[in-house]
Amino acid sequence: MSGNTGMSLFQRAELLYHAGDTRGALDGYCKSIKRILNDENVTALAPVGPMPDNFPREMLGLVWQNFVGFLRDPNLNFNEDTAPAACNLLKIFKPGATSPQLQRWSPRFQSTEHGRILFKALQITAGFTLGLQAWNRQDRATAARRYQEALDLAQTHTPFVTFPNTFVGLEKYVSTEVQETKDNLDVLERNDTANATLAASLGQSTGRRDVVDMPTNFCMKRIEGNGEENLVNSVMLATNACAKCGIHKMSLQKCGRCKSTLYCGAECQRSHWPSHKPTCRRPAQFG
């Protein structure tokens, strides 16, 4: 057992990484994570020297940070096709997931406040990673949903959404990612609003997952996961629009009566009520 601890497996993975074997390193990170989740104290601190402020101090958190970093890097090309086992491990921690494996591991975090915070951190960063993977597949709608799910979970622990963050370790790591993801989602929503305005002027649909085809000789700039810029002549809308003002957002609220018409806030819902009232119906009840 002593030769196969989470720490020793992580160290072997690091050696493989520095030798240029990124696949072996990723497999090693997975083994280290599973060893800790199955057999060790999930909140145990890593027995290493000084680290940057935004590095988790927990052994599990430190390995996880490297693990998700590999899955996010488009240059490494680790995805569901090329690294299915790693991606399956990632998806176990998707916010809202309820797999049997998660139900087995979750209680190991729940006995202490530290454990519960660490568990949320894994879920949040898993959600961000799944969002980036969807973005790399050019699935903007799924990317936006994964981002929003993770951001909603981050709201349940104040240090994760405190900027600037004076904490160190896990909370600094997550809060930095939350801020970056919020900024990315804000840009995505603004672009959706502009693209939907163009689509409407061309007589095209403007709902979530609708694809906007640009006019001839008109291209848009797309920022790839690795920072590269490409020109595209069509784009998928990732969000729906407020029924009143037309702004596109992930955090729209449903009409409390019909459960289908969406609004960005109470003010838009109130001002739109005279127009919406004639068609607003409660959903049909069956059974």
From TrEMBL:
Instruction: Give the matching Pfam families.
Output: zf-MYND (PF01753)
- What Gene3D superfamilies does this protein's entry cite? 6.10.140.2220
This protein's source sits in the domain of life called Eukaryota
Q: Which UniProt keywords apply?
A: Metal-binding, Zinc, Zinc-finger
- Annotated InterPro entries: Znf_MYND
| GO molecular function terms noted in the UniProt entry | zinc ion binding
Q: Per the database record, which ranges form the MYND-type domain?
A: 242-280
- What's the protein here called? MYND-type domain-containing protein
Q: What is the lineage of its organism?
A: Eukaryota, Fungi, Dikarya, Basidiomycota, Agaricomycotina
